[in-house]
Specification:
The protein has a single domain, classed as Lrp/AsnC effector binding domain/regulation of amino acid metabolism (RAM) domain (Alpha-Beta Plaits, 2-Layer Sandwich), CATH 3.30.70.920. Helices cover 21% and strands 42% of the residues. It has two helices and six strands; from the N terminus they run βαββαβββ.
């Protein structure tokens, strides 16, 4: 399983329509509206890297999306008092 964050820069305006379209894309697990350098951060989980490319291509087709930057997660840690490796199921 490949997990990634897709950092999305939007053109100014209403994001509701763009988020509605993003919700239709298979393998998108979370969509977060953020303040800072990126407007929307998407979490995706796919079986193959080519599927991640399909997701980013679909995101680029959504009206209002300026650009994206994809960050593949190499290792993920959970905070439950102590950090533990939760990606050991690879």
């Amino acid at each position: 399983m490949i997990k990634a964050y897709i950092l999305t820069e939007m053109r100014p305006g209403d994001y509701n329509k763009a988020v509605k379209e993003m919700k239709k894309i298979e393998n998108i697990k979370k969509i977060s509206i953020t303040a800072g350098d990126y407007d929307i951060i998407i979490r995706a989980e796919v079986g193959h890297i080519k599927d991640l490319l399909k997701i980013t291509n679909k995101i680029h087709m959504i009206d209002g999306v300026n650009k994206t930057k994809t960050q593949v997660i190499e290792k993920e840690l959970a905070n439950s008092g102590l950090y533990k490796d939760i990606s050991s199921k690879r």
